[in-house]
Amino acid sequence: MRTPRTVTLLATAFVALTVSGPHLASAATEDVARCAGQVHARVPGAAFQQTACLDDLTTKGLAGTAYTDMTDQAGLTAKATQNPSGVPGIQIDGYFRDGSHTNTTHGWNHDSQFVIRMPEHWNGGLVVTASPGNRKQYSTDTAISDRALAQGYAYAATDKGNTGPDFYRDGKRAGDAVAEWNERTTQLTRAAKKAVALRYGHSPRRTYMTGISNAGYLTRWQLENHPELYDGGVDWEGVLWTTDGPNLFTTLPTAVAYGQGKADADDMYAAGFARGSEFLWPYHQKAYWGLTQKVYRAEFDPSYDPDCPGDSAGSTLDEMLAPCASDGSYRYADRPEPVRRAVSRVALTGRVGKPLLTLQGDLDTLLPIATDADVYARMADDQGRGRLHRTYRIQDGTHTDGLYDTYPDRLRPILPCYRDAFDTLTRWVEHGTKPPADHTVRRPASGDVVNSCSVSAP
Predict the structure, then answer these.
(1) Pairing with 137, which of 130, 189, 213, 251 sits 20 to 30 Å away (CA)?
(2) pLDDT band at residue 35 under the 50/70/90 scheme
(3) What is the DSSP code (8-state) at residue 159?
């Protein structure tokens, strides 16, 4: 395993101790001066943390080391994505107190793991995110961390407090696991602000929340419930949870039924799936619909079919991806009131308290845009918060950019549009430059769609 040159490594588990191991390099004398002052960085409230001063905090420098996990990023970005590199600084890995153990990263077998990166040349800002899906803390290093660091931002990410397909087993009552995501994101944001102040001598001047999929949901939730912690956010394909629907349970059962031969294309369109997305249905039937429906149903409505998934979503990949036979017949509207109460614990309202930009592809085949971003835009308007919110529909975008490599003639990656949206947000927040109104970002007829996009372009 390749290891970057590591200048200083410091670990604390309530008391300071020195950590060594095959993946952690020894101190390099010539770099001590550059890292002076950085070794005192710490994360208040962490149960365990280890700190390393590194030559390059980006994935180019960290790939193949214990400081990132490239496998957990699979499918999120197109292969030809161009990323910056060569950003020296400090990285802190650790975890907060937690009683669950789904995250095995570093051999810690401990949830609520986090990573905080602080570049040597800081622009005064902090970017906070969390893992999409049920991934871990390094999952958006390529998609978000690399560019944020290159722009000078400190970066913080959390595993949300539980990971993997069996995440729903965390907690004592329905909805506990997802509710913890919100708590852990708030916890990390507060801790990261303090860690940044310890490292640089003052608190961040700007803090932005952002994320993909489940972390897009968290971006919405944080700006609704803790706007005091942030200056703005960018929500990329965020999941929509509402008590009475729409939510995952008003769309996915139809998709599962379609895969079981119990629904047809007209049923799919009625559920919100976009016409023109049919070529993506076979892949999503195999990789997404069944697993997503059964594990979130087990999280919020475990009494529906207590034997499936039961104690585990499956022991093999095929078992994990397969739906429960009963989930094709699931009808959220017919479920008892406790199910709605569980969903209401994590439901969104649209009442954002800071500027928010939402991006979603019009060919999203996991979260149909008609039942997600379009609905959330109306929710924000209904709450009188439309002035703080913009929605940009990305023509030919889908839920994961990696599918572009399979269908380059039919899809476009959302990442370059996300990057431009982030810059649009910062100009709005920091300079008062209002972003364009809600509109569809058309796919250009030519050019590098993998690495260029303007959300201002019609």
Answers:
(1) 251
(2) confident
(3) -
3-state secondary structure of 120: coil
- Is the pTM value of this prediction over 0.90? yes
Question: What amino acid is encoded at 370 in this protein?
Answer: A
**pLDDT for 10:** 36
Q: What would the mean pLDDT of 81-104 be, rounded to a whole number?
A: 97
Q: What 8-state DSSP symbol labels residue 397?
A: -
Residues shown for the chain: 458
CA distance 78 to 395: 16
7 close to 32: Cβ distance less than 8 angstroms: yes
List residues bridging with 95 in a β-sheet.
48, 113
Placement of tokens 């697993």 in the chain: 291
The 356-361 sheet, strands edge to edge: 16-17, 6-12, 48-54, 89-95, 113-119, 154-158, 125-130, 206-212, 232-236, 356-361, 389-394, 439-441
With b for 16 or more beta-carbon neighbours within 10 A and e for fewer, the 388-415 pattern comes to bbbbbbbebbbbbbbbbeeeeebbbbbb
3-state DSSP call for residue 63?
coil
The whole-number pLDDT of residue 40 equals 72
Q: How far apart are CA 32 and CA 39, in angstroms?
A: 10
What is the pLDDT, as a whole number, of residue 441? 97
Position with higher pLDDT, 6 vs 438: 438
- For residue 344, pLDDT beyond 90: yes
Q: Residue 201: left (phi > 0), alpha (psi -120 to 50), or beta?
A: left
**Segment 185-212, tens digit of pLDDT:** 999 999 999 999 999 999 999 999 999 9
For 176-191, b/e burial (b = at least 16 CB within 10 A) is: bbbbbbbebbbbbbeb
Q: What are phi and psi of 91, to 5 degrees?
A: -125, 135
List residues bridging with 103 in a β-sheet: none
Q: Is 454 exposed, middle or buried (0-12, 13-18, 19+ CB in 10 A)?
A: middle
CB 84, CB 56: distance < 8 Å:
no
pLDDT at 66: 96
Alpha-carbon gap, residue 157 to 331, rounded angstroms? 35
Least confident of 3-12, 77-86, 127-136, 145-154: 3-12
As to burial, measured by CB atoms within 10 angstroms (0-12 exposed, 13-18 middle, 19+ buried), residue 306 is exposed
Inter-residue contact 195 to 231 (CB < 8 Å): no
Cα separation, 86 vs 59, in Å, equals 10
